[in-house]
Design goal:
Elements lengths: L1 E6 L2 E3 L5 E9 L4 E9 L6 E7 L4 E3 L7 E7 L4 E7 L8 E9 L2 E4 L3 E5 L2
Parallel strand pairs: 2-11
Antiparallel strand pairs: 1-3, 3-8, 4-5, 4-9, 5-6, 7-8, 9-10, 9-11
Length: 117
């Protein structure tokens, strides 16, 4: 069984910052990639940022230069974080953590990020 727990969402003013964290544990063998996706109301879920176990990162064009993904992989707990700076209202969405392992993808329950004055 896989457990994915996200934290760090909330309400922030435009120009502000938030940091999301995701911890994955349980029956996960050989994580290939961890990352973040988001889904705004009425829109499809989209990639925000991912980081492969080897360190390669991939960012959506809309967040490049503003968001930074980082991760810690160890035997017992795997964590990925998303530092979000210079937030704007277009970043408002539910943010989901995703873990890719041996062809399977696991999702967290999502955390709400709202950017509003």
């Amino acid at each position: 069984q896989v457990h994915i727990v996200e934290s760090g969402g909330g309400l922030v003013q435009p120009g502000g910052s938030l940091r999301l964290s995701c911890a994955a544990s349980g029956s996960i063998f050989g994580i290939d990639v961890m990352g973040w996706y988001r889904q705004a109301p009425g829109k499809q879920r989209e990639l925000v940022a991912t980081q492969a176990v080897g360190g390669n990162t991939n960012y959506a064009d809309s967040v490049k230069g503003r968001f930074t993904i980082s991760r810690d992989y160890n035997k017992n707990k795997n964590t990925v974080r998303l530092q979000m700076n210079s937030l704007n209202p277009d970043d408002t969405a539910v943010y989901y953590c995703n873990v890719g392992s041996s062809g399977f993808h696991y999702w967290g329950q999502g955390t709400q990020v709202t950017v509003s004055s």
